[in-house]
Amino acid sequence: MSRLLATLLLAAAVTHAQGPAHVLVVVYDWSSASRAIGDYYVAQRRIPPANVCHIATGDRETIDRATYLREIEAPIAQCLRGRKLTEQVLYFATTLGVPLRVSGPGTGMTSETAAVDSELTLLYGKLQGRAYPTAGPLENPFYRRRENPFEHRSFPIYLVTRLAAYTVEEAKALIDRSLRAENRGHFVLDMRDAEEDEGNSWLRTAALLLPKERVVLDESPAVLTHQKDVIAFASWGSNDKKRTQRFLNFSWRPGAIMIEYVSTNGRTFRQPPDSWTIGPWSDRGRYWYGAPQSLSADYLHEGASGAAGHIDEPFLYFCPRPDFVFPAYFAGRTLAESYYLGMPALSWMNIVIGDPLTRLGKAQPRRP
Question: Which is nearest to 114 in space by CA: 59, 55, 166, 62?
């Protein structure tokens, strides 16, 4: 066993006690989908009733900052303070129907637009009296801290994931699969035809940090499809010019997660028609909710249990890095820890989809 994997296993063992009492479930009361998913998750994970926070806000994916502060952040802060959960809670699980995006002025690295979930990571610091700028990304203190268990004393943030998919039934199925997760299957890494690209370097490094017999690393120009027994997948998605199909027709294991280097794959949870597929930016006929790019929710539709996405342009550097996420997940970190350990920025464009408590556990021997 490598020294790195030994370190990751030790950190994962320290955090093994994290459980239902450490999750705050955020339910939007005016959304039947949010209520149904929240109720189902609470029952399946046995979340304490005090750890369910009900909010009331608009039925839309995009809200302005004033609405976010008034209708999302403030009531959640009240839940935490009023129930004395500020320190106990480590994770938030928002639900389908909770707004997805905070709109704001600016472009590029000065943009004040951010994912609601990414903004909520800062709430712990705000409850301690900290103030944060709204423009651009903020440094994630947990990024690359492989050797450390996640705790507020060291990392003054919350880790926020979203229980969502195209439909309530798909979100419930995601929860069911997460509860059955086990450490089997292949880590599939698909490079694009750009030999010196930094993103390809992260894929190669991830392959080196994982057990060789568990890795499928494709360095050819072709797009991988029809892979079996997949526990994790990373690629360029629709930014690989060779990819023209919407679905990859993978067979996913329970607990499987994915990463794509794609600017807008978390832009919506509105389900496209079956006739829709990805395309180039020049083809307006291929746009779905503002872009022609691949969608994280399609992987959940196909059978994945967790996904990363972006509500708008994050820039490559701020995408989750598979060379941090996948080894942490393999070693036994929770889904939430694994993604945030590999995510450089907060108050930015990133979302994480899935049950925050999903854990693979110890590697299982291959079945005959």
Answer: 62
> Two tokens at 158?
């919350």
As a 3-state breakdown, the chain gives helix, strand, coil percent values, each rounded to 5, of 35, 20, 45
Close Cβ partners of 42 (under 8 Å, ≥ 6 residues apart): 25, 49, 52
Residue pair 265/293 in contact by the 8 Å Cβ criterion: yes
The Cα–Cα gap between 250 and 244 comes to: 16
Residue 184 CA, chain-centre distance (Å), reads 20
Question: Among 262, 291, 287, 268, which Cα is nearest to 276's?
Answer: 287
- Among residues 245, 240, 242, 307, which one has the least CA distance to residue 274? 245
Q: Which secondary-structure segment (H or E) carries 3?
A: helix 3-14
Burial class (CB in 10 A: 0-12, 13-18, 19+), 366: exposed
Strand partners, 24: 92
Separation CA 350–CA 170 (nearest Å) = 21
**Which residue is associated with the tokens 């307006």?**
284
Residue 106, C-beta contacts closer than 8 angstroms, at least 6 positions apart:
112, 113, 135, 136
Q: How far apart are CA 305 and CA 119, in angstroms?
A: 23
Could you read off the pLDDT of 156-208 as tens digits, one per residue? 999 999 999 999 999 999 999 999 999 999 999 999 987 668 999 999 999 99
Phi, psi (rounded to 5 degrees) for 256: -65, 145
Token representation of residue 1:
């066993």
Q: Which residue is it, tokens 């704001």?
A: 104
- Tokens representing 221 are 């120009």
What tens digit of pLDDT does each residue of 313-337 get? 999 999 999 999 999 999 999 999 9
Element (H, E) at 60: none
Phi, psi (rounded to 5 degrees) for 29: -65, -25
Residue given tokens 């108050």 in the structure block: 347
Quote the pTM value: 0.94
